[in-house]
Every structure is written in C-alpha cells, then in structure tokens.
Write a structure and sequence with these properties.
Length: 383
Amino acid sequence: MCSTTPRGVALAGMLLFLVLLFVAGATVKLHCTGFQNAATAGDENGSLLARKILRVKMQTGEPNVSMLRQDHQRRSSSTAAAPSSGGGGPLPAGIVQGTSNLEMESMVGDSEHGGGTSSKTKSLLAVPVGIKNKAAVDKLVSKFPAEEFAVMLFHYDGAVEKWSDMEWHGRAVHVAAAGQTKWWFAKRFLHPDVVAEYEYVFLWDEDVEVDSFDPLRYLAVVRREGLEVSQPALAHGSEIHHGITARSASGGNVHRRFYRRAGPRCDGDNTAPPCTGWVEMMVPVFSRVAWRCAWGMVQNDLVHAWGLDYKLGYCAGGDRTLKVGVVDSEHVFHRGVPTLGGGGGGFRAAVRRRSYAEMQIFNRRWKQAVADDVSWTDPYPEH
C-alpha cells in the first residue's frame, strides 16, 4: 500500500495548477494572436471601406429616390386608413392611428359616444391671411359651410387676435408665422397624414372674391368630371396670367384646354401645360391623393413654389388632359392684390426676383431627380 504525506499532496497540487495555468495562457495568447493577425490583414481594406461608406452618406445627404418613390406609391394607394404596426412593430396594430385631422375636440363629455368629432367626410379650406384683407377673407370663409368644411388660416402678419370678432373664428385653426408664404405654411402644417381625412384641399389665396361661387356646387362638378386637380375659372376683369384660367365664353361646366395660335402656341397638337392639364397656384383644389403627391413636390426652401404648377399634372392619378381642369360654372374674381409684397415696390421686385430664381432651382432639381431615378418613367416626356 502506498502512503502520501500532506506535504507531498500540496506539492503535487501546486504542480498541477501551474501546468493548467501555462496551458490556458498559451491558448489565450494563440487566440489573441490569431485575432490580431486577422485584423491586421483586413485593416487596410476594412478601414477604407468604412470611410468610403461614411463619405458617401455625408456627400449624398438625400434619401434614396427609389425608396421614396415606392413609399409614395404605397401611401398614395391608401386613403385615410391608419397604417398597421403589426409584424413585430413596437406597438400593437390596433392602437396605431397614423393619420389625424384639424377638427376641434371638447375637453369634457363622452369621447366615444357623441363627444368626439363627426364621422361626416369633410373638405378643407386653407388660406394665408393678413388683417388688411379681413373683409374679403370674411366673405370667403363664410361661403364654406361648417358642416362640410374645416378651415385653417395662415396668419403671415401674426395678427391672430384681431380676428376674434368673426363669427367663424372659433371653428378655424389659426397658425401664425411672420412673413411666410402660403407654400411655406402648407409644407409644414398640411402634411398628408394630418389632412388625410379630408376629401379635397382648397389651398387658396386671400385676394379672391366669391360672390358667384358655391363650394358645394363646385365639388359636385369636380366629382362628376373626375378632376383630381382643379380650380374655379377666373371671371372677366380678373388678373389673369395664363389664358387657360379665364372663364370660357362658350359656357359649360369645365374646360381642360386652351387654344390660341398667336403667342405661346396652344393649338390642337399641344397637350403640355399651360395649354392643357394645368391650373394656376392662386386657387388650386386637390383631391386627397393628389395633395399627397403635390405636397411631396413642395420644396422646403422654395417658398414661392414657382414652377410647381407645370408639374401638378403628374399628381392627377391618370391622364392630366382629363384629370386636371378649370371649372367654368363656379368662377371667382381674382383681384391680384399684393399681400406679402405690400412692403413697397422695391420689396415686390425682390420677391419677384426670388420667385424666378426659385423656378430655375426647382426645374434643375426636377431634371436631376429624373436623371437619378432610373426606375421612373416619365409619362409626359419633353420633345
């Protein structure tokens, strides 16, 4: 029988511990060395690739146009339905309300049973206003019945409190920002998801007279004619910039073309704006889907939106020669009163210079976008 002293056991245990420690250290060193070698071998290419990706993102600064187009098509195909958050999203699908409206809500009462907003489909009137045109705006807003229209006023002079004596003041949504244009307001406060519940969006200037205009009859014509982008005709004596907006002398409900052989050629062969498929930017009316498209074209920094009118036909959801039109039976009078340009002749001239410059910038961006998006096909190529 073999006997072992306690001292011998201790020495054997220490020897075994040192052997295990040596083996473990060698293994760790081997793994670290292998990792370092692999990192060294790929460092140059990996670092260059990482820097290249970062540089491309910084230089581009724009979202992928193909992805934007796909998202736009997906959104345009829907109406006011709230998007689902199913499929592993952060919220349960049934709680998500992806759209909103401009309706007033009471702070008391039963929200689910009579205390909430009406389920009736409405349209929206949005107008930039200054206190100097208070009387004309009062007549304009009063023409749009409360049960059929929501109202949003863009106060470019900031004088919100001076409208409190208007009968309709309490039902209007008031937004104030000094010195901003209609399109600046529209881009920031008329997002398609916010106004998705409204069937039509009237985005009108304040300097129009509506004595001969009825909005309900107007919409009846628009629906019957299938117009996605439209405007009321301008009455005789109005400030008219393009012949197609003038009220037709031949009568009828709607016209979609303008014929004139002198000056800009608008003969039977010309189907391009402003001879056909065109409305002006002072009193446009958009369907829900058309507004989603048009809002996407409004540029954040191009506040006068010059040049946009020539492209609105792309938002008509079909042939612009059929889906865009001027309603003759419900016409308005355009007074052509300078509003934001009321700071004097020099200021108005500066506004016009910027407007022309913005049109050139917009056209350049359009051409660049067309060139960049190889998946997009222009239904109206220039000849």
